[in-house]
Amino acid sequence: MGSPRHHDVVIVGGGNAGISLAAKLRRMGCQDVAVVEPKRVHHYRPLLSYVGGGMATLEELTRPQAKCIPSGCTWYANEVVGIDPDRSVVHLATGPDLHYTDVAVCPGSRVDWAAIPGSEEAVGTAAAATSYLPEQAVKTWTMLSSLTAGRAVFVISDRHVPCAPVGLKPLFMAADHWRRSGVLGDIVIELLVEGSRLVNHDDADRELRTAADSFGVRVRTRTTAEAVRASARSLRVRSPEGTDDLTYDALYLAPPHRAPQWVAASGLSTAEAAGFAAVDPHTLQHVRHPRVWGLGDVATVDTLPSGGALRRQVPVVAHNIAAQRAGRGLRRYDGYSVAPVTTNRRELLLAEFDRDGHPEPSVSTPDLARPRRSTFVFDRYLEPRIYWHRLLKGNVR
Ligand SMILES: Cc1cc2nc3c(=O)[nH]c(=O)nc-3n(C[C@H](O)[C@H](O)[C@H](O)COP(=O)(O)OP(=O)(O)OC[C@H]3O[C@@H](n4cnc5c(N)ncnc54)[C@H](O)[C@@H]3O)c2cc1C
What we know:
This protein is α/β, with parallel strands linked by helices. It has helices at residues 16-27, 46-52, 65-68, 119-123, 134-146, 168-180, 202-214, 261-265, 307-326, 373-389; strands at 5-12, 33-36, 41-43, 62-64, 74-76, 80-84, 89-92, 98-105, 110-111, 128-129, 150-156, 187-193, 218-220, 224-229, 234-239, 242-247, 250-254, 257-258, 292-294, 337-342, 348-353. It has two domains: 5-109 and 259-335 and 389-393, FAD/NAD(P)-binding domain (3-Layer(bba) Sandwich); 112-256, FAD/NAD(P)-binding domain (3-Layer(bba) Sandwich), CATH 3.50.50.60. Helix 1 (16-27) crosses helix 9, helix 2 runs parallel beside helix 5 and helix 5 runs parallel beside helix 6. Bound molecules: flavin-adenine dinucleotide. Flavin-adenine dinucleotide binds at residues 12-18, 36-39, 45-46, 48-49, 79-80, 106-108, 131-132, 162-163, 166, 260, 296-298, 305-308, 310, 338, 340. Residues 7-125 form the FAD/NAD(P)-binding domain.
């Protein structure tokens, strides 16, 4: 086990949130930051949707984790198995406990296969896939691009799915591919969305429905996939009209996600937070433990979890850790989030909104909520560079 060690700030999870926060804290002069992250590679996850649409490779979105950990930080290539917030201790799967002055909890969320019984078995077959996991993303495009006739069903859950509307990217990229290869007329495309809209932004929602119409997609909102029978290639579906069974030739899932179980076991959740880290969505401070902070997909930020949202959350947490120590007022996060969605293989729209669904565009013109070629190029080619060279370097304000 070894003797316990102390760090000024311990960051749990070295994904988008953890690395950006570590770098930001170092920039602000914090001398002793430790990151606990078991994975040896770091993924730029937004490109997974393009892998699922046949427009990017896994190599393009993968870097060695060692190259992402900011210089001057201590990296524990280890897994956190629990936190004792009363004693300010992080427990690792192997090795010594870590004591902290402040801890930032950002281990992300994970696919909750149990939420749709049969779904895990289904993605083990050639007829179902998800771009939400690196090991499934290439198969998503293999499945979609090899379909030449039949029924393609796309399921977008709204249960904690990271940046859920990007689940539409593989749909639109595939539909455009089917049109270009002359088989669109032979494929029935069904889109099942759990929420009442495709995205939490009026204009963008309208644009996406228009794009769906142009490809003949049958859109069903407030519709939930309840179970999958892989052997029969069949899906049990519940909608306001009732329950029915839908067969498929290709099934794409943006599946429900859940928080890691140790978060609740550590007393960091509440009944309402349903396993997620219960933070004040404005200050990102834990509701009961003032030295615990939460951000990213694991935290109850009361808005769509996304990488874009982290650009605003990271500086708030970094500032608030310092502000609390100095007895100054805490900064507030307004719930800004973003969903970039391709409408074909050339164009993309950007829905940006706050916690209440009010548009919050980052530029006043042009209107980025309309599909554009320039926005597509930005999202596919420039944004990954910004991620590696600016966001992971803590270059956020
Ligand atoms: C397919 C896909 C497409 C997306 N597209 C977009 C997009 O276009 N635009 C956008 O803004 N957002 C997008 N997102 C959302 C964005 O990627 C996430 O919101 C963001 O990655 C969340 O960052 P995070 O650090 O909270 O979680 P993650 O990035 O998931 O990182 C969590 C890290 O914690 C580590 N970890 C987990 N458990 C433990 C533990 N017990 N101990 C230590 N470490 C642990 C994990 O290994 C991981 O590295 C997409 C997500 C996916 C999956």
